[in-house]
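Homework help board

Subject: predicted structure for assignment chain

Our instructor gave us this sequence and asked us to write out the predicted structure in token form, then describe one feature. I got the tokens but I'm not sure how to describe them. Can anyone check?
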Amino acid sequence: MKEAAIQPHRPVLLLYYHMDKCGGSTVRAWLRRHPSVDTFYSHERALALFAEHADLFGEANSSWSPSDWQRSTLAVEFHDRSLHLFFTRLLPQLPALRQRYASVGGRLVSLITVREPAAQLVSIYRMWPPMRLDRAGNPIRGAALPLEEWLPHVTGVLSRCLVPETSCFEGRRGWACEGLSLRPPIFVGTAWRPPVWSPRCPPGELLRLARERLASFDVVIDSSALTAGLANLSSSLGWRPLRVPVITPSVQSRDEELIRRNRELSSPEALSNLSIRTALAHATRCDAQLWGVARALSSPPVV
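My token output:
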């Protein structure tokens, strides 16, 4: 009997832009476990992608072990301090990289998950509980900063997450992005300090650029429809179906009293308070149009 012809493996490169509190931990776990993904680079190893295509990116780092990209399915996560690399390093070469995959019958897919801005902000507040500082600048144990006092300083978080390089700088401890998410140096340990940006909407040019960047992603998934969105992504790539895991990230604090008080200040009862609802509406008004674009682009569509 004549042997069946061996079908060549078509390479896939999935680039995941992981913004804080938008279902990213679940997507990361799903990609790690997926049997159709040969190699997964978490955000700590995102530079390995540039090393594999050093002629495009000029990255030569012997510490990385390149995969056989022409015969593999590779997923790369951009998150935290590597987010700015997506737009400053990757985006200028994205057309060439996309063409490189297409030339060998492969595919490059860019993915982003988004979340309704008010829910994203409340989730950030719960994940990294902000604290009051004393006059010496030291955190006061258990002294949670009320949500309505914190919100005026975090307007336009969705827009800023899509333009992270506008507020990134390289310091002694590596890259820090003050306006990107609400991480150090805005948070120093569990202590809150006022961020450097003004508590107003981002400039119009930044909002325009954020909308353009959001629309440039091949796949946009609303975190409230994550299971359906990832199922659609699997189907479009010809991957085997895989159940989406349930991941609950840990609160980034060891102060039990702070965590307890933080939960009280962001409980459903507290969120129904008129002053907090007003503060949330004010903090998210900058992202209203951008969120509308995200809803229109999401797969499956959000209704």
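Reply (TA_rk): Your tokens look well-formed. For the description, you could write something like this. Confidence is low (pLDDT under 50) at residues 1-8, 168-198. That's the kind of observation they're looking for.
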